[in-house]
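Try this one yourself first.
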């Protein structure tokens, strides 16, 4: 609706003011006429009703008089007379007898017809008039009158038409006058359209119009000055822009026929032609095939010149004259040769990137490397537009290279080595070989990229072009990209092979690992089952390997494992498989096992070989091996069972003193189960207080007095009772429980010494056996010092016993630890002397107080002359070193007499007394107590 009103709204100010005035007048006249006509309508109805009432009263009197005498003719004449000029259409007198006298009014044919709505409205306002005719209280009849609605409506309609016509005439005259005056008053605004001169002001114009024209004249004068300056500036700017365009663009003028009429200096320089050669020629000869037209033409053109063809971007604009006809053309060119070259380079690089992506996807497929190499050679030719490409592989050891993949090379040249160094210096050698093969016609220009894999040159990817050509940096980058992809693929393949090897072989020794051993053992079992023969497996564990690690470090331990693996390979047959299971454990698979003696021979060679000294860090160290042997099908029918049986046999070898081999027996499983149970219970024994100490006395031969005690560890099991030491001491050593248990022993001995010191005036020293684990523990002296200080006992009442084999495992470390213990005032002795292989040079350096002769040399005294000689020699050696001698295992009076005769200082054994609890030692601690 608003849009329609907007369209109907006049555009001129006069039209809008006149429209506003006309609408206002129409509303005013319409409302006034409506009110006027309503007033006239109501007044006319009211007057008609009043006149009708008066006529009825007058007619009623006349009718009453005539009705009284029965003169109905007079009644009729009276009614007829009343109907003239009355508003009634009919009149009737109805007497009491029902007789009716009716008179109709004569209709006026000259009345204008009124509309139906007005007739209906008038009829609704006027009702029939009924008047009772009565004389002297007696009714003679009824006078009934009916209004003439048509006549009344025609009168009202005529009034409406006449008044409306008059109002319309007055309105039209008023609007015409207003239009004339408005046009005259606002006529001066037309002059505001012209700015060349000031607008004229009419004297009779309204003051506001005059003020507006004056203001507009002032604004027009100001604008003329301002725009004049702007036009001057614009002309100056246009001149400068033209000059800038001449400097920045290649511009020429062309007439309507397409002939060049003028060119700027840029055109001359860019085309490398003289101005005279350009002017007068068709523009089409200086670029694209353009034909004159009325539209702007744009496009790229190739312009020939003395320096070669150039690429221009051209815009040709038609210039029109005043009659809109083409006067000439302006041709503007920009040299886009460099941009086109750059775009071409981008397309080439995109193509090369696509080739690199193809090779990358091929490499990710992890297919055979020869296929990838062939694809790389083919893509190198495609990417660089060459006919020949090759991938060479370097052999650094032989100083040669060979062709791995190629394109455009003879097929019989593959894998033929030729002298060539590896790396960047290989380019000349590759070029010489290729030139000799292809000739200078096909290998005139070359570019190559070295393929570096894991920091070493794997080979080179080279491309050869027959023409003389300078390869660009992007081409070199593309070839290097191919080389990098090949390097990644080769590295991944080598890593895959390396991982495959690592999954099956031990990195330290190069031997097969546990997984590989299982595969070989399963294969040996399958072959043995098919050939109905026996196969076997050996489980080998190095004894005291942890001591080497603890004393010399892991590097020495690793070297020991490498040497042990090499010795194992030398001990087995060619078809046997030696593997490292982990740590210090090895295994040997015997695919073809003959009689039991064959496995025994191999096991004996292994034990003897590993018992030989190892040279580690300039020192000779001794270890041994425990070997367990299991055979198929006697000890198991699958690899897991055979390995378990061999492992069980190996533990049996350890329990039998190490440095030996054992064949698997069924009862070993029960022993192994008992061992596991014992190990578990030992972990809880210390917490539960199940350990206790027994003390065995030592006696001086010269006086028979008690010279000391040896504290011996015992385990009182809640169910098994007192467990023999050989059943749990080795387990404590192997599991490392010997360290906390050893500390408990030292603390308990100190506590007992304190208790004895409180009761007896003189307490002899108490000896404690140290294990190899304790001696190898760097913090042993500090631990002992802390325990002794806490107990508050005399350090001189403590004596530590060590075996000579323990001392010789790491003599230098043993010297340091023993010296520290000695400096604290404690006594030191070598236990089981004569059973090991101690060095006399080191024996002299150890800060010892006594040597204890092993029971094996005492057992057959005095009857065995060899034992007697050894015993005498040990006693003599000890005394020469100012060491006291203690003989163990003294059980008879013959032992006592012989040792007294040899000059032994002290004895210990069942002849003197068995190990007993501390409470049973009370009699031996009494003053003047003598035992022997």
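Now uncover the answer:
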């Amino acid at each position: 609706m608003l849009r329609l009103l907007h369209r109907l709204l006049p555009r001129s100010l006069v039209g809008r003011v006149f429209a506003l005035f006309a609408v206002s007048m129409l509303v005013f006249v319409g409302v006034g006429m409506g009110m006027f006509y309503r007033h006239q309508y109501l007044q006319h109805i009211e007057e008609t009703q009043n006149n009708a009432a008066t006529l009825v009263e007058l007619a009623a009197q006349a009718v009453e008089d005539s009705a009284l005498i029965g003169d109905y003719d007079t009644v009729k004449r009276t009614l007829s007379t009343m109907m003239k000029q009355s508003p009634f259409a009919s009149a009737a007198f109805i007497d009491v007898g029902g007789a009716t006298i009716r008179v109709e009014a004569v209709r006026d044919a000259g009345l204008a017809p009124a509309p139906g709505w007005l007739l209906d409205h008038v009829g609704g306002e006027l009702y029939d008039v009924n008047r009772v005719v009565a004389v002297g209280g007696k009714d003679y009849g009824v006078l009934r009158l009916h209004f003439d609605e048509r006549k009344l409506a025609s009168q009202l309609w005529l009034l409406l038409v006449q008044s409306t016509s008059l109002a319309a005439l007055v309105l039209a005259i008023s609007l015409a006058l207003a239009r004339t005056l408005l046009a005259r008053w606002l006529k001066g605004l037309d002059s505001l359209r012209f700015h060349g001169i000031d607008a004229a002001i009419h004297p009779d114009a309204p003051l506001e119009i005059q003020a507006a024209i004056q203001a507009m004249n002032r604004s027009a004068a100001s604008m003329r000055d301002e725009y004049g300056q702007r036009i001057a500036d614009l002309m100056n700017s246009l001149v400068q822009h033209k000059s800038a365009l001449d400097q920045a663009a290649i511009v020429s003028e062309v007439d309507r026929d397409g002939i060049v009429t003028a060119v700027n200096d840029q055109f001359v320089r860019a085309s490398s032609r003289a101005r005279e050669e350009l002017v007068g020629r068709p523009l089409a000869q200086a670029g694209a095939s353009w034909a004159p037209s009325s539209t702007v033409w744009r496009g790229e053109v190739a312009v020939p010149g003395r320096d070669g063809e150039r690429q221009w971007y051209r815009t040709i604009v038609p210039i029109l004259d005043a009659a809109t006809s083409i006067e000439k053309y302006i041709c503007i060119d920009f040299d886009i040769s460099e941009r086109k070259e750059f775009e071409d380079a981008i397309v080439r690089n995109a193509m090369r990137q696509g080739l690199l992506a193809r090779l990358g996807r091929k490499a990710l497929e992890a297919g055979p490397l020869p296929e990838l190499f062939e694809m790389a050679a083919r893509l190198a030719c495609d990417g660089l537009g060459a006919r020949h490409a090759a991938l060479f592989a370097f052999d650094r050891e032989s100083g040669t290279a060979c062709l791995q993949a190629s394109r455009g090379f003879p097929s019989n040249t593959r894998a033929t080595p030729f002298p060539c160094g590896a790396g960047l210096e290989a380019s000349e050698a590759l070029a010489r070989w290729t030139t000799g093969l292809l000739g200078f016609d096909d290998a005139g220009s070359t570019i190559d990229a070295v393929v570096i894999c894991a920091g070493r040159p794997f080979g080179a990817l080279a491309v050869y072009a027959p023409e003389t050509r300078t390869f660009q940096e992007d081409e070199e980058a593309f070839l290097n990209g191919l080389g990098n992809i090949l390097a990644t693929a080769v590295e991944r393949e080598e890593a895959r092979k390396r991982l495959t090897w690592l999954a099956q072989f031990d990195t330290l020794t190069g031997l097969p690992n546990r997984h590989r051993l299982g595969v070989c053992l399963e294969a040996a079992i399958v072959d043995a089952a098919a050939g109905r023969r026996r196969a076997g497996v050996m489980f080998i564990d190095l004894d005291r390997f942890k001591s080497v690690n603890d004393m010399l470090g892991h590097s020495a331990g690793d070297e020991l494992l490498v040497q042990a693996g090499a010795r194992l390979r030398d001990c087995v047959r060619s078809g046997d498989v030696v593997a490292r299971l982990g740590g210090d454990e090895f295994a040997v698979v015997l695919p073809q096992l003959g009689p039991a003696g064959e496995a025994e021979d191999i096991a004996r060679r292994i034990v003897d070989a590993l018992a030989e000294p190892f040279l580690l860090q300039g020192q000779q160290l001794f270890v041994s091996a425990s070997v367990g042997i299991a055979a198929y099908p006697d000890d198991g029918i699958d690899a897991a069972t055979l390995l378990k049986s061999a492992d069980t046999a190996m533990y049996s070898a350890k329990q039998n003193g190490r440095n030996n081999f054992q064949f698997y027996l069924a009862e070993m499983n029960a022993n192994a189960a008992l061992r596991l149970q014992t190990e578990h219970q030992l972990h809880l024994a210390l917490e539960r207080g199940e350990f206790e100490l027994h003390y065995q006395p030592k006696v001086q031969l010269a006086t028979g007095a008690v010279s000391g005690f040896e504290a011996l560890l015992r385990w009182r099991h809640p169910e098994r009772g007192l467990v023999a030491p050989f059943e749990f001491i080795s387990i404590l050593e192997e599991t490392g429980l010997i360290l906390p248990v050893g500390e408990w022993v030292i603390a308990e001995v100190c506590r007992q010494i304190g208790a004895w010191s409180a009761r007896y005036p003189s307490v002899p020293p108490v000896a404690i056996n140290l294990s190899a684990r304790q001696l190898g523990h760097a913090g042993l002296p500090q631990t002992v010092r802390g325990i002794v200080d806490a107990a508050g006992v005399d350090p001189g009442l403590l004596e530590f016993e060590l075996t000579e084999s323990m001392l010789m495992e790491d003599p230098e470390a043993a010297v340091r630890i023993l010296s520290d213990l000695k400096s604290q005032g404690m006594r030191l002795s070598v236990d089981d002397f004569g059973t090991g292989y101690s060095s006399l040079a080191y024996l002299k350096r150890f800060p010892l107080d006594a040597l204890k002769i092993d029971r094996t040399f005492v057992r057959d005294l005095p009857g065995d002359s060899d034992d007697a000689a050894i015993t005498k020699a040990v006693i003599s050696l000890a005394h020469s070193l100012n060491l006291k001698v203690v003989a163990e295992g003294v059980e008879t009076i013959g032992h006592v007499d012989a040792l007294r005769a040899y000059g032994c200082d002290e004895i210990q054994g069942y002849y003197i007394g068995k190990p007993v609890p501390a409470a049973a030692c009370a009699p031996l601690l009494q003053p003047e107590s003598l035992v022997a």
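Discussion: The CA atoms of residues 829 and 850 lie 5 Å apart. The chain has a mean pLDDT of 82.
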